[in-house]
Specification:
171 residues, alpha/beta, 7 strands, 46% helix, 25% strand
Length: 171
């Protein structure tokens, strides 16, 4: 009889618990990385997750300088996995000679910021429901935010920048 009473109590409370569960929103996850090893780990995560596309914007000179031994391997693996890239960059020697020149073979579309930022010491990567921010100046620091709403908002920003960016560097 006690067992039956407990069962009835559980049945009575269960709908309320289910409703409560639906109202709890999922919190974003944030991961923090330092140094070159952290940057490599983020790039490896992208390869492991195999998104259809990555969207990137930032300063290619600093990014390439810091990761010159690793970045070509990342690009080769990304291409092997069929991961496309759309990239908006600051006009620079690296941007014009390395990135723009090898677009087709590296499954990449490259555009240049319409207004050249004076200083741009960071790179942003977006894929699936994640955004990675890298600071690449004096100290290498990176943060990955995993959240569907935040990722969607950043993708809207990227798409607007993409629309107003140029396929050719400004003279």
């Amino acid at each position: 009889e006690i067992l039956k009473e407990r069962e009835d109590q559980i049945k009575e409370v269960l709908p309320q618990l289910k409703q409560l569960k639906q109202t709890i929103t999922k919190k974003p996850t944030v991961e923090f990385f330092e140094g070159l090893a952290g940057l490599k780990l983020i790039h490896d995560t992208i390869l492991r997750e195999k998104p259809d596309e990555i969207m990137v914007y930032g300063n290619p000179e600093q990014h390439y300088e810091i990761m010159k031994f690793y970045l070509p391997r990342f690009v080769k693996e990304r291409v092997k996995l069929g991961i496309k890239a759309r990239v908006i960059i600051k006009d620079s020697k690296v941007g014009r000679e390395w990135m723009k020149r090898k677009e087709k073979e590296e499954l990449r579309q490259t555009k240049f910021f319409s207004e050249q930022p004076k200083d741009f010491p960071s790179v942003t990567y977006m894929w699936n429901n994640k955004i990675a921010y890298f600071t690449i100046e004096k100290k290498i620091i990176a943060v990955i935010i995993k959240d569907e709403s935040i990722a969607e908002a950043q993708k809207v920003v990227f798409e607007n920048m993409w629309r107003f960016s140029s396929k050719k560097p400004r003279p």
